[in-house]
Design brief:
2 copies of one chain form a homodimer. The first copy, chain A, has 155 residues and is mainly alpha-helical. Chain A has a single domain, classed as Winged helix-like DNA-binding domain superfamily/Winged helix DNA-binding domain (Arc Repressor Mutant, subunit A). Chain A contains 5 helices and 3 strands. Chain A has a 3-stranded antiparallel sheet with strand order 1-3-2. Chain A starts with 21 loop residues before the first helix and ends with a helix. At the A-B interface, helix 1, helix 2, helix 3 and helix 5 of A face helix 1, helix 2, helix 3 and helix 5 of B. Chain A binds a DNA duplex (30 and 30 nucleotides) through helix 4.
DNA sequence: CTCCTCATGTCAACTATGTTGACTTGAGGT
DNA sequence: ACCTCAAGTCAACATAGTTGACATGAGGAG
């Protein structure tokens, strides 16, 4: 047993640093993995994955969003959205109904089951973040937010 | 023109926040994108992508690494490594030679061209990080590192 | 010398996630 | 009746990964 660890590739700091910022670069990589690892595991147990979670996440925060707006926010083509979206509808994690006035658009909402899965998956990610913030305190957390905002706004 | 923006999906903060930590969660997502966006664009112009960069990055920091060790660090199967690795060898961004004693292993090294591409791609990422660190100062940067270490160690 | 091990290499089949392009459907407005 | 627009669907393709099976070639053990 124990051929290669499940978290293969996550051997932080096993590489020489060629630049001062290499450590930060690797921290971003491993940070993303660290935040999403448990959530992805949970989603896999539900037969879902990251794209499904992204859909659920957005719809949870924009009830009655139309397909076109969802496509815009996710940044993928409607064809790419099609399969995961249909799976979520089939599994009754999402409902779609036509708008009363704007009858051309379909409006998406989470069902209770969908809301539960979205919450649990996101909770796994938030749990990791909360633990990290708790460990460094308010000042450190504020620094993290400042840095991440600067990076994120690099569009 | 201007059908949908190239940075589609990167409309930060267009979503309602259901939890206090939702903003942080989204910052991680957009932060990762923000850091890798330019580097991915540069790599695409070279006919390469993220997996190629990961290989170059690791080999740059572990000259004479063997295939098996590379597989371990990257956390992918040898079959998955095969194609991008062969492309890099064909394009002479990497060289492989057999070890003098350990003749069973092949040792990988970057060529000058490979080193240049690795540096430029990583520079795009480091540039974004440096700008963010500069904007928040040493205290904020230290906070960021503390938080990211806590998250990354969540294996 | 033969046999076993071990690192590497390769072939095939499959899954998942995405892309473009082309076309259909169905509702609304003119 | 005609046009537009949101949505849905089909096909072909690219990329990045998986497992399984098998080949090759060097070293070590007998």
């Amino acid at each position: 047993m124990a051929k290669t660890s499940q978290t293969a590739g996550l051997h932080r700091a096993s590489l020489a640093k060629l630049h001062e910022l290499d450590a930060a670069l690797e921290l971003m990589y491993y940070g993303w993995r660290g935040m999403t690892l448990e959530a992805d595991g949970y989603l896999a147990k539900q037969g879902l994955s990251r794209p499904h979670h992204r859909i659920l996440y957005v719809v949870a925060r924009r009830p009655d969003i139309a397909i076109g707006a969802l496509i815009e926010i996710l940044g993928i083509s409607k064809q790419a959205l099609n399969r995961p979206l249909n799976l979520l509808l089939e599994r009754k994690l999402l409902t779609s109904k036509r708008s009363p006035e704007q009858h051309r658009s379909k409006l998406l909402r989470l069902t209770e089951a969908g809301r539960r899965i979205e919450q649990r998956a996101s909770d796994h990610e938030r749990k990791v973040l909360r633990a990290a913030f708790d460990r460094v305190g308010a000042t450190g957390a504020a620094g993290w937010v400042g840095v991440m905002e600067a990076i994120a706004d690099n569009n």
